[in-house]
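Example protein as discussed:

>
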Amino acid sequence: MTLDFRPRFLSSPMSKIINKLNYLTTFASQQIHPRPRRSLSTFRLSTEPRRMRWLGLLFSFNFALLISACGLDIEDPTPPSPPVWVQKSLPEEWPERGIDAHESGGIYLEWESSAEEDITTYKIYRATWYDISDSLGNYNLVTNLETEFISKMEYIDTGAQIGIPYYYKLKVEDASDNQSKFSDSLFYSLIPQLNIWMIPNGSSATLGNIKTLSWGYQYSIEMEYFCLTILTGENEFIYRDIFLPGDYINGHESWQIPTDVVLDYGWVYQWRIDTGARYIDDRETSGSESAWATFIYVGD
């Protein structure tokens, strides 16, 4: 086989640079592969170290010059690492972390920020579990979250329906359009919120020395536990308690704030009732969160 080192002369806007590179490459190649004088049997490869080093430097310099002049950017084909979900917190922990019901009525998702600096997009996928056929549907893209438009690694799936188990996976994409493999899967389902009534609740509602909180709900809700949280009007944590329902039939409950919980006169407080069911490793996989109710404390 005959090696053809003749330069190719181009007519593109960058022809001068490319033709110069072709010329230098041809000249350098001939230093290593001198043309045979008589026949291919006399073809010899020069192994002179100085020429080899010179050729390597020449190639590197001219290739870098060409890339710079053409404005090209060589992209890294390596895909980013798969993203990682934030581990779900235990029911008694505050603030809550990880997958959970949200007070808006959706499912809350949270993940760790990617270690790679050039991540441009987080992709959230969801699949539905079908109890009747005991099977999982296909994962479909729910949303693309571009990193330049988000400040927190979180998303609320407001399209989730009550009573349907959903599985979630996550991908990331970098600036070179490389996509990671899927993250591990998470699953959660919603049960109805306890929003029939909550007392006290309102901008002028008050709570006195008795310190009893009451709420109503649909008696058909399949919760295993209640979780009640009290915060100040400025979202400072006050108290959180987990307890069994006391009345499964009539659809209303009440709870007494413990005497060792100190509330300040005239301050605004907010409280919320969560439900939890289908616990795995002490963490619920089904639940709901009520909207926040408020009161002004006027006791003591």
